[in-house]
């Protein structure tokens, strides 16, 4: 018996502007009479983190798998309550309300994630910056009040966007975060990756041997795919409707995270404004990249990197990739000669380009 799972339009069109950089996953359940024990599949879906989250587990005890799915959804809810800029009681909101006043005691998890985000700010020269929250709030993309901000206000927000003004203090009585007056932390560019890592650790701890975690397009797979061989993940085509893909990545035990300007945006005066900001201007990044997919063992890093490389653009992005170990990427670049797909060396055998209108460049890195 083989089943093909893809994202039904109804699921995607939930009327949310949530980011759903969709990776279409083609999974075939193992052929039951392949001589091995029959493989059960358990899947759960929920609206969390402003998007659709879906976890698919494979194993031989469906009761146990469903119990673990309950635990996983509870873990996502717990971390959303800790890290969401949209929940007033979250650690992030507590820090934002006290900006410039006093150090706020936060959970060790929120503190260490903020430190990780700041490390990526340093490595990307501020292209990735978790203090982008003021700019994000002004634009309101993904909400009913999305609009082009007043240039004066935007300039003020850009002046406040500076990761160097954030301190994370590890004291004997806990972890504290202090930000500068008016600063606003927003972990939307890294926290889905972190939450994916936490869910993966929970699944492994509960004895799950094979799973696919999809938090709004932030994907992680581990263990064997239900079909012999690697997992096959389709990468959303940046210029086609949701559900169409430009290529297939064959992977195992990694995270596959994509950032692009085609999911979360609004249009005004015939211009499309997307949700990934150039922290130097406060405007949506004018990237020469249409989409960035990062493939790495760590989902937190992959999430931050996909956002950062999108802002950095092709040249700066490739030079950063050259410095990194065990990180692969698929970059879709908009060039004068057309749409060019760049794949890093370590992935070149595991990536199949499907759109004949796109050209595959010689491998990079
Ligand atoms: P990515 O490229 O991974 O990140 C883009 C997001 O990162 C932007 O939305 C912004 O938040 C931030 N960002 C933009 N530019 C930069 C930059 N230069 N450097 C660093 N960060 C940048 N969405 C809702 O609509 N409603 C919700 O209630 C909601 N709650 C959430 C709670 C949590 C804990 C998380 C992690 C996300 C939540 N979201 C919610 C979604 C969030 O607002 C982002 O849109 C989403 O995480 C973007 O993911 P992405 O993969 O599309 O883009
Ligand atoms: Mg990201």
Plain-language structure description:
The chain is of the alpha+beta class. It folds into two domains: 3-79 and 190-360, T-fold, CATH 3.10.520.10; 88-178, ApbE-like superfamily (T-fold). The chain contains eight helices and 18 strands. The strands form four sheets. It has a nine-stranded mixed beta sheet with strand order 2-3-7-8-11-14-15-16-18, with helices on one face. A four-stranded antiparallel beta sheet has the order 1-9-10-17, with no helix packed on it. Strand 2 and strand 3 form a beta hairpin. Helix 2 (62-83) runs antiparallel to helix 7, helix 4 (108-123) packs parallel to helix 8 (299-323) and helix 7 (191-205) packs across helix 8. The radius of gyration is 20 Å and the shape is globular. The structure holds flavin-adenine dinucleotide and magnesium ion. Flavin-adenine dinucleotide (FAD) is lined by residues 18-19, 21, 49-50, 80, 83-84, 86, 128-130, 132, 136, 142, 186-189, 191-192, 217-218, 259, 263-264, 275-277, 279, 303, 306-307, 311.
